[in-house]
Amino acid sequence: MAFHTAIYTDVTRDESVDGEDGFNFQAISEGITGRERQAIRERMLHRISGQWPVERDEREHPPSCAFAVIDDGYYFSRGISTGTTNNGRRGNQLTQAAVTGAADDLQPHRPAQLYGAKRWALEKADGTVCEPWFAPLELDPAFEAEALLSALRNDPWMLQTLPAFLSMITDALAAHPKKTVLVHDDLDTVMRWIATGTLLISNSDALRLEYRAFVADPFRAQGHIIGTHPDLLQGSLAGAHVINLLDRTVTDIDLTPLSRKAAEWVSDLDAFDALEIIEIAQRWEPHLGAELAVSGAELVTGARTTISSREEWKLGVRIVEALAAAGLTDDLEIYVDELGDAVSMHQLSGEEDFRAAARAARFTMGAGLEALAEAVVLPTLSSLAEDTELQWSGIWARELSHSGDWAWPATAEPEQFTAPLTELLLGAPDEALPALFQVAQPLAATLSTQQLRPALDRAVDLIMRTPAVAAAGVGSWYEAAAIERGLMKSLVAASEHNDPGISGRYRRQLQEGTWDFLNPEAAGTLVPAAVQFESLRRAAQIARVPATERAEFIAGTPRLPGPENWRFALTGLTLPEHIAAFAIWIERVGITDSLDAVVFASLGPFLAQEPRNVKRRDAEAWEPLVEALQGTVPPQPHYQESGQRLTQFIADIPTARERAKEKSDAFMSIFKNRKED
């Protein structure tokens, strides 16, 4: 890539790019656009102060330079006063400008260093076409990073002032910026200061830090850092941060933590190491905060003095977690070895350690950094195994599986994880099992079900006692199918328990939907426990329906439970109040001996009554139930007999006419007896 360049000055018609005399572009490189030319006219030209004394030669007017970011383009310029114009007027100037739309063209330098590029000529071109500058640009040695930092280290006042200058730059780039003004009579000196400052901030900040020097009025000039010459200065600089490089005075400012540390690094480290550590800290500071960014930068560059393995580990996992959360995965990849060393040298203990380790592993796996995740997980498993009571295993596993999609690092052999994980599963407290089974699932192919049978049985017992631990289902657990089969078998047994308190509790849970997460269909029709549980669950679904709607629900439900679950399905229903529900149940499902006994415990006494004492509609209400009994297969003699008895019973019930005649006959009989008396 290349920089487009241009020369702007007073020109004749023959000299002008546009064929017009006056102030205009004298030369431009191929590819420079009209928009770029307009931006140069508006923002980048050398300005001659109106306060410059008439008696002084204009060519002595201080030179200028500028850097601005305009419409995603990077614009640079330098300018000088050249005396009089072609028509003899004062105020001629020449500005040379360079612009690129690619930040990579500036590399490996910062924008302010390009003031020292050797391509600056500050003179008219031979024709109307000037050459582009091809990147990377060669610099004057004085503007190379090593020379700038060497000059800084060799000047105690500069080194002492550096934290204030860097804090001023931070303030100048803030949401509500305050300008920084540098006062000196030499533009090269001002620009070396600005170039030095931009070396010690992040590259992204350096790319947006605009500067301009020399100007007469710093407050009207656009830019974050303004250089001004004493001969041009007008009025007070109150309201700006000011460093007077001639008087060596600095206005007060609260120093940022990073600025203090940067000064230490510049003083103590060689140029390359100082720039590296400062760049890292500056890049991380917005995401990690100043303290963690500083410590982290020292850790990954080897500049940190280790206090203890615990502190080093704690710092390592904090950095891993913070960088991953911020999406800075490139940095995690770059420093995977350094961070891996930091997080593998400490024996973990306590809830805080294991939570932090789990988060770090989860975030690094989420970022695709499996080698770093392995460096976190393996020593964590080792530390968990050293905990004789395994009290932290559940906390660690719950944090690890927090997002629900944990996968073990493929950079290690699965066997490295299965042995310690098996030990955890067999020895962990019951409440830790759900989370441990969830993180174990991805290793199902290498774990031994036979070896882990005691843990699986404990998981079933735990869920039976506390269904809430599996309310979301066990589908993501290791051996989920085996656990579900165990649960279904246990639930069937519990619902049929001889102790009414036990059976009642589990039937209530089934009726309330507590166990709806179980999927008997997935277990298959060949698993007896699944078949029995499915019948039980369908009975529970019927039992949820209000009593007045139960008969209709049974009639409209395509798949019904087995007849053995009649008592559960018809919970809360009695005879003869709910004859319709019992009738449709017998018709669609069938009857058992126990249901037979209940039915005839009500039907028998009813049929034993004197027909004349029974209302016809009450007797006819039994007809659907008796018809259902008569339709059962194989036919039962007492069901047929009951039908015949009910038919005869209804026939024997007097009609309303017969009852009226009986009353009339009784009345007439009484009247006749009185008359005879």
Could you explain the architecture of this structure?
The protein has 677 residues and is an alpha+beta fold. It has helices at residues 34-44, 145-153, 156-172, 187-199, 203-208, 257-268, 271-288, 290-301, 309-325, 329-334, 336-342, 351-366, 370-386, 393-400, 415-427, 433-440, 453-465, 480-495, 500-512, 520-523, 528-543, 550-556, 566-569, 579-588, 593-607, 616-620, 623-630, 637-652, 656-676; strands at residues 2-11, 22-28, 64-70, 73-84, 90-100, 133-134, 180-183, 211-213, 225-228, 241-244, 249-250. Strands 1, 2, 3, 4, 5, 6, 7, 8, 9, 10 and 11 form an eleven-stranded mixed β-sheet that branches. A hairpin with a 2-residue loop joins strand 3 and strand 4 (73-84). The longest helix has 21 residues, at 656-676. The protein is elongated.
